[in-house]
Specification:
Elements: H1 6-18, H2 26-47
Length: 60
Amino acid sequence: MNDLTLDELNTLLAVFERANVVEGEGAEGSLMARLRVSRDERAELESMDFDDCLGGACKL
């Protein structure tokens, strides 16, 4: 399975926002909420400094 990049997730969320989708309402809103969670998780992963994992003190 191909994961979406952070840019792709941001683009999809922008499309949902321009379409005035209300997060959590209906199928579209549910998908928007899931995309937002995925985007936040992807952003956190991409911002991690893997040097933090040296010595067993890894955030993962």
